[in-house]
Structures are given as structure tokens and as C-alpha cells.
Structure prediction request, 486 residues.
Amino acid sequence: MRSVRARAALGATLVVAVALVAAGAAVLLALRSNLIDQTDLRAEVVARDVASQLAADVRPERLDLPDDEERPVQVVAEDGRVVAVTERLEAVSGTSSDEVAVRPAPAPSPSGDDDDDEDDDPARGEVSTDEPRFTSGSATVDGEEADYRFASVEVTSGREQTYTVWAGAPLTTEQDAVNTVLKAMLIGLPVLLVVVAGVTWLVTRRALRPVEGIRSEMAAITASEDLSRRVPEPDSRDEVARLARTTNETLAALEASVERQRRFVADASHELRSPIASLRTQLEVGAAHPELLDVPGAVEDTVRLQQLAADLLLLARLDAGERPGRGRVDLGELLREETAGRPGDRVPVAVTASAGAEVAGSRSQLRRVVGNLLDNAQRHATASVRASVRAERGWVVLAVGDDGEGVPPEERERIFERFVRLDDARSRDEGGAGLGLAIARDVARRHGGTLTVSRAPEGGALFELRLPVEADASREPASGQGPSAV
Prediction:
């Protein structure tokens, strides 16, 4: 079965069926046991009544036996003779003897005393105090055969004669009651199972209706490729509602990711077009007029194209979830190495770095961050750039500030977006693609840190990179202001 509703209805029906069958069997067994106990009690009462007469030395042929068909009695002597039986008993089984005719006692020996002398006054006999024995059998009374329960009681008369009294009680009432209950169960069980299956089907259908709405909407979204659509969210607070909300959150994240990817591809195509077109033009002119070939310009365009390709490749690796290395990196030493490799920079960099400022991460990626921050500061500085590394309450802080015009407060988050360049930056640096700060922030986040921008004491921009001393992306950055430029 491929339908959840059908499986749920079938499962619930089977569970209820098993439970009802088990409960019905238990009820029938309990009812039957109780009725048999009552039948045994009725048979025992009759048997003890006859036994009490024998104990009072009443002769077997003079016993007051029940004359109704529901209480057959058979008295068996110690030697196996049937000495008394109800008049209308025609056949019996389940007792110690199948005979229903009375057999007389054998004649006494001539020398013996007459045990039947009515003038004798023997002692009173006794009824056995042992629990009676119960058996199942059948009896035919007045031509009607039925099942019976027999109780046997042993008794010793005053003449020291031992008898076994068998008294029966019919099982007709017990059988009728059990059959009635069984028929009621056989009729009611299928009806109840049909009701359970129908109710389960309807309830499951109602419960899964929002799921079907989610499925159909997801199918429509897949067919239309329109990620702006959302699945309906039910008003309930159950698992289905949480599923719908999670699905919409996933669709929103997927839409944002696809939109970023589209924008990234569009911007990358645009940024790559300019250096490629410029390089092609210079090469075509050089091919036609070698004396006009601008070799420095071609090299510059090639370097620019190479840097852009490297930035795009790094962003692609970061978007793919590449994890940084686990090596130990001294951020102060890395800053000194990076500034030492820039002897021809337009604006010199003043460095202040404390010792032992180590973090865990990728040395190459962190070097790219330091280089991008220094490039950005030198691009916008007027006369000075200051860089420092310090330890601050479990964090290592790299601060790079300049004395330029700074970043307006409303643009301080936007500059970290990819391919975003402010108007003055675009006019001052025609070669920038707007990827440096985006790469720096992505690398910072991959290392469990942050990258923010504020106003430097000199009036320009102050970028602060905060990385945990121990690489743990779950830790929040410590609060505090960045260092003053030195």
C-alpha cells in the first residue's frame, strides 16, 4: 500500500482487532469459568444433601433424591454397585459408573448378624470433609441428553458403609450464556472494525490534508522553478505546521542562495569582460602595429585578470563549505611579513604587534585577509596607515586604520557584499572588483571570528578582525572597542 491513509487505517484496524479478540477471549474464558464454578456449586449442594442423609443412616433405597431433570443423582457403593439413582436418569457418563440401574446387595452369611435390623441403633456416620471432585460428563434424563458437571462426595454411614454420591448440574445455562456472548462478539466485532477503519481513514485524511497541500505546492515549485513561492502553513501547532514552516525556511534560504549565485555569476561575467576586452584590444593592436603594443598595460590587465580569477576561485571554495586548516598562525608575525613585502606601497604602514598572538586556521587564507585589509587601507588613505595586533580577553584583534574619508555609517555593511564598490572607490581604483572585503569577511566567519568597520581616530576607516585564540566558531566575539591607531 502506497497510501499513508490506507496503511494507517489498516494498522489501526489490525491493532484493534487483535486487542478485541484478546479481550473477547479473556471475557469468554472468565465468563465460562464463573458459570462453571456456579454449576459446580449447585452440584456440590445436591451431593452433600444426599450424603448427609446417608450419614444419618438413611438406607439408599429410602433416600429423598431430587426428581427434576436438572439434578440427576447416582449413589455408588464401595464395591462399585449403584445403590441409588434418580428415577428418570436413563444414561450417564463422567461418573465412576455408567450404570443407571440399582443392584441389590449380596445376601449376608447365615452366621452373620443382620446388619439391616431396624431395631439396631448404630452411631451416626460422617460426610468426608475433603474437597469434592468435579468432572464433566453427560446425562440423559427423560430422553434428553445434555452436558453436565458432576460433584462427587464420599460419605460413611452409621453402619460403616462407604458410599460415593454423584450429583450433576446441567451446563445448559453456561453454554447458552457463552454462545450468546460469542455470537454478539462475532456480530459486533466486524462492525466495530469497520467503524475503526472508517474513522481512522477520515481522521488520517484530515490530518494529512495539509501535507498534501505542501506536496502539491512543492511539485508546482519544482515544475515552475519559481523559488519565491511558499507552501501553505496550517494554523495548527503540530508537526505538520512545523514541517511547513521548515520547508518555507528552506525555500527562502534556497532562493537567497540561488539569487546570490545568479548575482555572483552576472557580476563575475561583467568584471571579467573588462580586462579580457582590454587585453584583447591591446593584443590585436599589437598584432597589427607592433610599435603601438602597450606591453605594461597588457601585463597589468593580465595581472588584474589573474587576481580576479584567484578571488573568484577562493569565493567558490568558501561557498562550497571548505573548512580552514587547523594549524597555528601567529597573526602579529603574519602582519609583519605582509607589510615587509610591500616596500613600494604608496602609503607606508606603521605596524604594532604584540608577541604570541596565535590563532588556529589557514595561514594562506588569513594572509589573504591581511593583504586585502592593507590594500583597502592604502587605497583610501591620505598619508598614513596604521596596523596593530593585540590580545583581548580570549580573542586576537587585528586592527587596520587609515586617515582617509572613512565609510559612511549607512554603507558599513554594504561594503562587505560581493562586487560592491562605493562611488568614490570606483573613481579612485578602476582595477578593483569589489571582492576583497567580501573575501575577508567570509574567511573571518569560517575561522569563527568577525570583521567589522568603524571610524578611526584619524577620521578614516578602522577595520577590526577578531579571531578566537582557540578555533571555536560557536563562541561570541568579546565586546570592546578597537585599538587606537599607533
